[in-house]
Inverse folding.
């Protein structure tokens, strides 16, 4: 599937707890990402629905904000292009989501890590496209 047009400036990885600080070259994969063989990512418009569906019991989450161009170029780890690292847009149930294959997230491709808090629902969350 093709990327949204125009493509997002950022993609987000939802974490249930704070990532290490400072970020390492490579963050450990979640069990879900290990099992599926790619890193699950969301656009700013998808994060609220994903958080509401999969993280509804949490009152705070951490988000990794990643420049889309960085991942689209295959940048992995400490700013190095990794052969085979790529974003694929794939249809999953309720939409088309970005999946990062053959790469890792870490200080070389995560622009920012920040905490978000749940209001009455995660669907109220607004993020930068």
């Amino acid at each position: 599937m093709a990327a949204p047009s125009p493509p997002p400036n950022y993609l987000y990885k939802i974490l249930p707890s704070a990532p290490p600080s400072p970020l390492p070259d490579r963050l450990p994969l979640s069990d879900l990402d290990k099992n599926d063989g790619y890193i699950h990512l969301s656009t700013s418009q998808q994060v609220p629905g994903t958080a509401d569906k999969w993280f509804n019991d949490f009152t705070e989450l951490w988000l990794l904000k990643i420049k889309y161009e960085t991942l689209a170029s295959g940048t992995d780890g400490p700013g190095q292009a990794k052969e085979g690292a790529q974003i694929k847009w794939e249809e999953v149930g309720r939409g088309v989501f970005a999946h990062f294959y053959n790469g890792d997230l870490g200080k070389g491709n995560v622009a920012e890590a920040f905490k978000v808090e749940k209001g009455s629902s995660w669907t109220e969350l607004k993020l930068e496209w």
Summary: The chain has one domain: 10-124. The mean pLDDT is 91. Residues 47-54 form the longest helix (8 residues).
